Amino acid sequence: MSKKKHVYFICYQNRCRSQMAEAFAKYYAGEHVVAESAGLEASEIHPLTIEVMKEVGIDISQNASKKLNMKTFMAANAIVKLCEQVAEKCPVVPFNIINMEWNIKDPLAIEGRTIEDVRVARDEIREKVLDLLKGMDIPVA
């Protein structure tokens, strides 16, 4: 079996988008990937994030928000930045690491947000994660 690929998902607070991306990567690729997430700042995982992931059968209620770790960053095969703030403030990604910017709008920052806004982001993230895994030749279930 080939060596596991490491994917590091980064957003601003690690409370929604990057948590979803990490969970989807683990759910679909299982033992074939090491998926982690972090934020430029740590925050609590938002209850709506937990709720919309439960709707698709993934429980992230025990996950913790984490701050960017440079050791994990440098060990990754791919760095995925899920928002513009991260792209502007993130350390430079070395040339040997896949560098992606998805720029998915933070559904929790939408004025008058609803759970539907979080679902839309979740579904977009799921599709992008599946495309990423396939593009990196990581088997998906």
TrEMBL record:
Keyword annotations of the record: Arsenical resistance
SMART domains xref list: LMWPc
Cited InterPro entries: Ptyr_pPase, Ptyr_pPase_sf
Superkingdom of origin: Bacteria
Pfam annotation, one family: LMWPc
Residue span(s) of domain Phosphotyrosine protein phosphatase I: 5-135
Entries under Gene3D superfamilies matching the protein: 3.40.50.2300
Protein name: Arsenate reductase ArsC
Source organism: Paenibacillus agricola
